[in-house]
Write a structure and sequence with these properties.
By secondary structure, the chain is α/β, with parallel strands linked by helices. Helices cover 30% and strands 17% of the residues. It is globular. It starts with 25 loop residues before the first strand and ends in an 8-residue tail after the last helix.
């Protein structure tokens, strides 16, 4: 859906907080690929991860059904890894703030699920979490560039949301590049995240496109040592980062 342009992008001024790009690429293992009967152990297995990615699906916005707030509340008691909750749900204005209130670090909802993304983001922030906006592979980023300054994270979907194990869609990297340019120029300050089909074969091209945070599910949890895989993926992404995009 196209949104009305409410405000023009403005350059971040000296009086505002300075966004610093993460010094190292961030890895966010997705528990969608973990053993749901052993989630505390599965979180411990990736203790060096930057975020723990939690896919919440409601069987309405997407055709699958996963988990919800009670599981997130339990996870928060079981791990110190910041929870990155990705809400693939309808009516985020109603359902997103409770995840922030529960203690999630970052709460992301879909641009396609609401006509008032800025209002939802403000409610998430008021409830104590970072606010993220996600876009599906076929959703253009241009209508949302004007409102990204109200967000802390942009999550670019590189597969269709709803199921794990899909193949990476490289064309979405053009969106990441466009937003990366705005962040590098000072017009925006946020973390650029990607989710879908990220593995040892795809993470380097995503890093080259300017991604900060990489969500990976089966590529991590389907290995013998998920913790070691986190480190390997982070190293791959760091090596592929353009010097121009390195943190200052």
């Amino acid at each position: 859906m196209a949104l009305p342009i409410r405000t023009r992008l403005r350059r971040v001024t000296a009086s505002e907080p300075t966004f610093t790009r993460p010094a190292a690429p961030m890895i966010a293992p997705s528990i969608l690929s973990a053993d749901f009967a052993r989630l505390a152990d599965e979180a411990e297995a990736v203790a060096s991860a930057d975020w723990l990615h939690v896919d919440v699906m409601d069987a309405h916005f997407v055709p699958n059904l996963t988990l919800g707030l009670p599981v997130v509340q339990s996870l928060l008691k079981a791990t110190d890894i910041p929870l990155d909750c990705h809400l693939m749900i309808e009516d985020p204005a109603r359902w997103a703030p409770p995840y922030a209130e529960a203690g999630a670090y970052n709460v992301t909802f879909h641009a396609e699920a609401t006509y008032d993304p800025v209002g939802v983001a403000r409610d998430i922030r008021a409830a104590g979490a970072k606010a993220g906006l996600s876009v599906k592979p076929n959703t253009p980023i241009e209508p949302y560039l004007e409102i990204l300054r109200d967000f802390d994270t942009l999550l670019v979907m590189s597969v269709e949301p709803g199921f794990g194990g899909q193949s990476f869609i490289p064309s979405v990297l053009e969106k990441a590049k466009a937003v990366r340019r705005l962040v590098d120029s000072g017009d925006l300050r946020l973390v650029v995240e990607i989710d879908g089909g990220i593995n040892a074969d795809t993470i380097e091209q995503a890093a080259e496109a300017g991604i900060d945070c990489f969500v990976a599910g089966s590529a991590i949890y389907n290995t013998a040592d998920p913790g070691a895989t986190v480190e390997k993926l982070r190293s791959q992404a760091a090596a592929a980062r353009s010097p121009h995009h390195a943190a200052h």
